[in-house]
Amino acid sequence: MYQSVTPSDADPAGHVPPGPESAVGLHRVLEPSGSQITLPQAARRLDTRAQLWPGEVRIEVDTLNLDAASYRQLAEKHRRSEGPDAGSVDGDAVRAEVLAIVAERGKMQNPVTGSGGMLLGTVAEVGPQSPLGLAVGDRVATLVSLSLTPLRITDGLARWDGLAEQVPATGHAILFARSIAAVIPDDLDPRLSLMVMDVCGAPALVARVVGEYAAARAASEGGAPSVLVLGGAGKSGSLSLAAAREAGAGRLVAVVPFEREAALLAPTGLADHVVIADARSPMGLAEAVESAGGPCDVTIVCVDVPGCEQPAVLATAQGGTIIFFSMATSFAAAALGAEGLAADVRMLVGNGYVPGHAAYAMELIRRDDAVRGLFESRLEG
Q1: Could you tell me the pTM of the whole model?
Q2: Per the domain annotation, does 2 fall within a domain?
Q3: Region class of 343: left (phi > 0), else alpha (psi between -120 and 50), else beta
């Protein structure tokens, strides 16, 4: 179990913190230190003092959005084993562990998945040398992971029941000079904006890759590229389907694990084929994709469980591309699995950043009623 660690306090005299500033946040790394110092994402513990270096920005936090893989791991770990509620998630235990992680590490980084999420808040202070273009009072969503963001929680997460990925919270977070944040638009529910921005890297990269395929096929008078999305009813999956269609995809296949998700996705028209399969089952997935026209040129993995790497390889056409957006992915399993299957596939890691990704995702949600409807149904649920 984690032990609470009190992060360093702000300088009460209001002085600039000691030591040189690093645009990538090295000055906030407390452990490891010296010659073993790492970037903040790989660090054991970060300095969360409210006092700013000149290039930093302080955000007053109001909502954390835990990434799906991290929340799933915490929820599965804290299922009740006894009593009338056996099998249900113990929200109090989930909340306690999140608080313990943040207290010990100075950031929200699940030690099992390595991932974090992102946050919504208001700009409280901007350092005089900050290049981010933010102003005090801006309502923003951070587009960098909580796994590298200095974070202090001050309300004990008292408003969160531990049963959902979105976490009402009070505290502050620090953005470095080389960070990314987007101002929340006025025309959308902030909770909806947070959900979209949490996965905005996915549709932007999908649009780029599918667009490249479509342009090459058009030049050679070939057919439009086929696209397979594992987890098509989810946040990143539904946005990826919409982006692929806009970018020139032909056959669109969505894989979902349950009938209820198929019933939710099929009427939207986002996919030409919606099939039910366990994305962790090599033959089960292969058979499902075969029933929808066979292996696809581009496969996008958006599920938040491990074990989908080799099934994705089998479902992808020779010479095709697989984009892994899941933080549950084992890239060793993906690479060695493709080698063992003699599969000629290009594999890309969706790193969450493409220039203009937030603006693109927000415009996509505005103009595509089908995908927006799916997101709003999540809020209602």
Answers
A1: 0.82
A2: no
A3: beta
